[in-house]
Write a structure and sequence with these properties.
about 220 residues; alpha+beta; three-stranded mixed β-sheet; three-stranded antiparallel β-sheet; 8 strands; about 20% strand; globular
Length: about 220
C-alpha cells in the first residue's frame, strides 16, 4: 500500500526513525520495489524509493518534496568514515530571462530553506541492496551558510546573465557549483550567448559541494 503523505513534521520524523538501520533492499522489498544491481543507469533510484516510503508528494515540481510541510528531502551517500561521497543536486539552473532574479526568490533558496538529510552508506563496494539507511535529520541554513550560498549563487548567475555560461566550471563557488546536468551531450538547451544572442548549451544544475554537506554532517553528528 502506498504510504500517505505525513501531516506533521513529527509524523515525518517518526517515519524517518522507523527506516533508520534498514538496508535499501529491505525497504525496497517491503514496497515491492525492484532493487537494481548497480546505480550507474538508475542514479535517482535511491531518492525515489525513500520519497515513496516517506510519502513525499512533489514529484518533479519545483516545490519542496513535502509541499505542505515545506521540507525538501535529500539522500546523501556517505563513506564508512561518514564523509559525503558525491555532490548533492539542488535544482535546475535557469539560463534565460535571468535579469532581475534574486537569491531570496530563487528555487535554490526555496529548496534549501528546510532540508531533511538522509545519510545512506554508499561505498562503491556495497551493492545497492545492502546499503544501510542512516539517521535522518532536519537542517536549516545558518545566517552564515545562507550568505555563503547567496554569494555562490549571485557570482555564477551573473556570469549567465552576461552570456558567459561556458566560463562556469565546477571550481567556482565555495559551497555550491553549477555544472552540466544531462543524460548525454546530445541534450542541449537555450542560453544567453556572449553578445546577447541565443546559443545552444548543455542544461546546467546547482549542486552542493561535498565540503559543504560534510560540514552539515559534522555539525549534526559531532564527527
Amino acid at each position: 500500500m502506498k504510504p500517505i503523505k505525513p501531516h506533521s513534521i513529527n509524523e515525518l520524523m517518526q517515519r524517518v526513525s522507523n527506516i533508520a538501520g534498514l538496508t535499501l533492499g529491505q525497504l525496497a522489498s517491503h514496497y515491492q520495489f525492484k532493487t537494481p544491481e548497480h546505480l550507474l543507469k538508475e542514479k535517482g533510484w535511491t531518492g525515489q524509493l525513500i520519497e515513496y516510503a516517506l510519502g513525499a508528494t512533489a514529484g518533479s515540481k519545483p516545490t519542496p518534496d513535502f509541499e505542505e510541510l515545506g521540507i525538501e528531502l535529500k539522500t546523501l551517500p556517505i563513506s564508512y568514515k561518514g564523509k559525503p561521497l558525491e555532490t548533492t543536486f539542488v535544482s535546475v539552473t535557469p539560463l534565460l530571462n535571468v535579469t532581475g532574479m534574486t537569491w531570496q526568490q530563487s528555487n535554490v533558496r526555496k529548496k534549501l530553506n528546510h532540508v531533511l538529510w538522509l545519510p545512506i552508506l554508499g561505498e562503491r563496494d556495497i551493492v545497492p541492496f545492502d546499503r544501510t539507511i542512516g539517521s535522518g535529520f532536519l537542517w536549516q541554513p545558518s545566517a552564515e551558510q545562507d550568505a555563503q550560498l547567496q554569494r555562490d549563487w549571485e557570482e555564477q548567475m551573473e556570469l549567465i546573465a552576461l552570456g558567459r555560461v561556458d566560463e562556469i566550471s565546477g571550481h567556482l563557488g565555495d559551497a555550491m557549483q553549477i555544472r552540466p546536468k544531462a543524460a548525454n551531450s546530445r541534450i542541449v538547451t537555450d542560453a544567453i550567448g556572449p553578445n546577447g544572442q541565443i546559443i545552444k548549451t548543455l542544461p546546467r544544475g546547482f549542486y552542493l559541494k561535498t565540503s559543504f554537506t560534510g560540514q552539515i554532517l559534522k555539525q549534526q553528528f559531532q564527527l
